[in-house]
Please model this.
Amino acid sequence: MKEMKKISMVEKYATPSKSNYFKLDANENLVLDKKFLTNISLDSLEKIDLRKYPIELYEKLYKKLSDYLMIGEKSLVLGSGSDQIIDLLLTLIGRGRRLTSIYPTFSYFKTRCQLHGILLSEMMLSSFDNTLDSKKFIEDAKKSHAIYLCSPNNPTGNQFERSQILDILSTLKNNLVIIDEAYVEFAKYSLTRYTQEFPNLVILRTFSKAMGLAGARIGYMIANEELAELFKNRIQSPYAVNSISLAIAISVISNPDKVEKSISLIRDEREKLYQNLSKIKKIDVYKSDANFLFIKCNEEYNRIIEALENTKIIVKAFDNIESYGNCIRITIGTKKINNKILSVFNNIQ
Ligand SMILES: Cc1ncc(COP(=O)(O)O)c(C=O)c1O
Model:
């Protein structure tokens, strides 16, 4: 009962949903054609045999992912969303252990640390430009067992300097270093290949964002073969991803044109929206390497959220983040939606 009481103190994961609204609060890829995914899904359903465990489908997706990432299959482990892999990694780290991360970052990670009884030390980013003081970070991380960094970071949207992360990796060889690359397809660089150099590095990736498959729940981790093998055969459950999701992921990764086109459109729209919002004096918009923009709304916070709601746009609101104040995070959607956003902001000038 004591445990239940403790768990009830863990912050709830909010999943807001209003069906007739533009949902720009969860960083999904809403630019990707829905019909394309529906056709792929129907096709996949016809091909699979639900009576069987998905052995061949697993093999096929590992092969496709290996080609896509240019990394050996033995370095890959699939999971039911990267959320599920995060839970297993935290189980591996263990109750009572210490973990160093940053603030602000992916809120789910923080609440899962609470659930797993892991002591989280959060190093504040600069609210001026989201930079990280890596010297301070390394000093703190020396006292920890593990590290979690999001690259690009959610919600701030920025990638840290590659040299900074490499510095952290090469200094902290005894810590498990988890780099969450959920948004990396929209960013400048990936650290995937460094998993072969640093046996303590785990990269998390997902089909939920750029690939447009948040509903299919597929994530994966990349690590050196020894760690990946241990994780795959002793920690992960044998069939964490179902046949339908596997078959859909195989089809999407085999037909990359539409996904690539949507990524390029989102990047262009992100730059356009960033440039236009930067002209508005009452807010501060941060440069982004992801498929969303993080905006400091200052005194206009409530007015902006209300105006967006009136336009049927839902964004992720962050009340009074330490040193940042009131902020919102907006997923980059289609040109049409972005123009709507812009006109809302132009009206609050
Ligand atoms: C940084 C980060 N990691 C992981 C996830 C979860 O991804 P998945 O859908 O694969 O569980 C998210 C989703 O918002 C995220 O922002």
